Amino acid sequence: MKQSFFIKTYGCQMNVYDSEKIVELLTNGGYRQSSNLEESDIAIFNTCHIREKAAEKLFSDLGRISKYKENKIKSGSSMRIIVTGCVAQAEGDEIKKRNKSVDLIFGPQNYQNIVDALKVKKKKYVYADFLCEEKFESLPIKNSREISRLVTIQEGCDKFCSFCVVPYTRGAEFSRPVEGIFFEVKKLVEMGAKEVILLGQNVSSYNSNIFEDGKEVSVKLSKLCNLISSISGLERIRYLTSHPNDIKNDLINEHHNNKKLMPFLHLPIQSGSDKILKKMNRNHLRDDYIKLVKKIKSKINNMAFSSDFIVGYPGETENDFDQTIDLIEQVGFASSYSFKYSPRAGTQSSLKHLDMVNEDVSDLRLKKIQRLLNKQQEEFNLNFINKNEEVLFTNKGKKNNQFVGRTKYLQPVHVLSDVNIIGKKLIVNLENLTSFSFHGRIIS
Ligand code: SF4
Q1: Are 347 and 437 found together in one domain?
Q2: Most buried one in 17, 18, 45, 383, CB count within 10 A?
């Protein structure tokens, strides 16, 4: 009987993509996916290192599963435990020291070796080289009929924001060759995908090349979107995550001209204070960001924005925080993510223990920023009530005959339909709003 594996994914969409690939590698390698962690022969934890809590959650999960492993061994059975992802890259041997029951550890650019490593009884248990090119050349494409699919086009980062582990865990920026991305998107569309989300830690710095008319031509994110939009049957293209310094006219023009490229841009700023932006090594000013948003809106009037914010960064005063609030009020976001600062081992900001913001103060700031961001999201959504919007349906809902889709701005929409509308892009009248999702009526 085939050995079974269970995989748990922590963190971002890049990890979701990586987990999908690990599942496909193992399935092709003769293993069977299980939905039961405790009963599986191989337990895989695909980890995230962005927040302290996510890494701590891993160690508490490992503590729990290692008890199951002990019991299995006592009863004559076995279990192997594998840690993959950014915590694996950052902590490597340390994971084994903290939990002896872990068998194999793979950094994010090494999991292509998972099947081989499971077969051989080697002493090597940490795989943490930066092998981006090798990885993408050997990854399979998951056979699935999902409507919205993730496609990693870029990995790593050269920007070294002082709070971020990505440059250390995912390595230097690497852009996948255009041909591999084009082939993957085409395959996904043939399997039924209507939307692709191009992923990268710093996707807007994508930079590759192709040969056109015998000449080598540079391909930035704008041209890549243009190239893949020629794939017949593909209806929507999204990308994340971007850095404001990389958004240039070519990408803005592509948004203006390419109707498949959605008018929704996730553009993290983290803080509205120049002093904090400098400490974070973001390499731009608050005004640069505000001007960029205004410029984009002046060219594409239906463009909406989301962002990321960190509150309580070391040295953040009340005045710095007020500037963040002011920036949010000036820009107006459709949705956003906000977090309380937590130092990540190995990053620049974790080395300086000065000026830590009191936890209670950070908590209050987080509540205040979230209240404002939620209010802006609600106001943004209320503008759509009684309007007709294009919705791409991706899933069945919880109720009978209910289907769920998303607008161009990623707003969830529920409708009732007697016929299966998964994969269809339909015009829906948005009748009412519950929390952050709409209920609507199909118009056409
Ligand atoms: S640009 Fe993004 S991925 Fe790169 S270091 Fe900064 S926060 Fe991390």
Answers
A1: no
A2: 18
